[in-house]
Amino acid sequence: MDTTSWRTIQFRVRYGETDQMGVVYHANYLNWFEWGRTELIREAGFSYRQVEERGVLLPVTDASLTYKRPARYDDVVEVRTWIDQFSTVRLVFAYEIHRPEDGTLLVTGQTSHVFTDPNLRPVRLDRQLPELYERLRAEYERGGKRLRAAHLEDRA
Amino acid sequence: MDTTSWRTIQFRVRYGETDQMGVVYHANYLNWFEWGRTELIREAGFSYRQVEERGVLLPVTDASLTYKRPARYDDVVEVRTWIDQFSTVRLVFAYEIHRPEDGTLLVTGQTSHVFTDPNLRPVRLDRQLPELYERLRAEYERGGKRLRAAHLEDRA
Amino acid sequence: MDTTSWRTIQFRVRYGETDQMGVVYHANYLNWFEWGRTELIREAGFSYRQVEERGVLLPVTDASLTYKRPARYDDVVEVRTWIDQFSTVRLVFAYEIHRPEDGTLLVTGQTSHVFTDPNLRPVRLDRQLPELYERLRAEYERGGKRLRAAHLEDRA
Amino acid sequence: MDTTSWRTIQFRVRYGETDQMGVVYHANYLNWFEWGRTELIREAGFSYRQVEERGVLLPVTDASLTYKRPARYDDVVEVRTWIDQFSTVRLVFAYEIHRPEDGTLLVTGQTSHVFTDPNLRPVRLDRQLPELYERLRAEYERGGKRLRAAHLEDRA
What structural domains does chain C harbor? Predict the structure, then answer.
């Protein structure tokens, strides 16, 4: 599979992200998802700060996480992010968190978002911010759509 | 519906839980779920600290959240928690987060857990800690099971 | 010493507040200080939300913490808060965090604040929000000032 | 001044680190200090994970922060860390947080630490882990000591 189909970030697990179980506290992965999609949007040509400054927010409407293996303090972890579903009013990001050192898949998940104005009222992205709409659509074409097709092939 | 079918906690939203969107940052609700199930376990007769001291952990294997309305700084919020599925090796907690002041349902969700030893290896709860097993099963009977039945009636 | 000289809150330590050292992660106590002063302001007659809605912010300019003993998961902890210094343009809150169960003093500290408008420009509280100024001054008289005097007596 | 006298890390401010004031929530800077000293220790030749695995902990005994300007979402920030005081039983890290884009100094601070065993009992580092002692001493000589001398010259 083309490895450019997702966007990646890497970072180290911080001490404050662990809990007394000796592993990363489970809620923190939801933060990591946010870091992943922030960089995807940036690589698509916008910073999320610019998006908000132009009056568009992407609040989360749904989130799901599957925990397969725990990350530990000081691990280098990699978040892979792609756009799994996309329309003029909403999009779904998908994520995989890996530990590159030993190739372990740690966590998978998704977050769903709607496009809104600063008062959290829904907007159509193609009308509100067409430049971002085009860029995210292109990102979806190169990433999420391709990954979905590959998945379907795998199952065929 | 019998209002004793779930366990409730109430608390105020803290400043540090908000983000610059002016509402609670979405990852924090996953913390609130944890507070809810901690008190459910306590009301069932054990503290989760005691559970861990007896060598049983309940790591999260799956989590899902649906965000309906945002909580805001200083809101009093209520987390309702019940056991939605239960067996000797795993259980599922379900949650609803409400704002009692205006009766708004803010967030719903679930977390799935397995019973493990301190090395995160699966154990059967009825063998490892039968007293807790019995109490959680009773909690499931009075709570989750009843709520499920009520749901099925609603749909009939 | 008159025990009404400070304001208190009590709560349990959450799992996510611990780290892999098995104790509360040190940065979290700064959050607890915030919870303490929020309730002090509320007991003085205002919620901090109301204060912000009337255009006054209290950003932190300095903070200091001394860690004496660690708090642990599920401990009931008590934050005692009082106003240690007070003027028309700034105030200092002081804090003690105790574990009532065994009477252990865990953490002490202070946070300094200035009064500002929403653009973080300094304001005089007695002009901007005289009602709050009077209440905080009264709170300072009954609390911080008395504690200070008691300290001086102790040393005499 | 020799710019190699401190260790630096750079990263972007995350959304979840902001609060509804539109700036970074003040407690988060204490986390950033931790990231700074973690990388200093790593560059000195050890990872803090290795240090803990060899039975030495560095719990925080005191922390202080001075907030000069707020960091904002998506800012690139730089944490400069050096060892300001050093002995066989304790050390003090000093920190400056800058926004390189416009050269603004945002926050300064210090954290004091003692060397302990896993039960949080004090140990002498030169006896418990001499290799780390030597490396931190060298780090202190090249960094903190030099910065202190420079400060004294500035004042002369």
Answer: 3-155 (3.10.129.10)
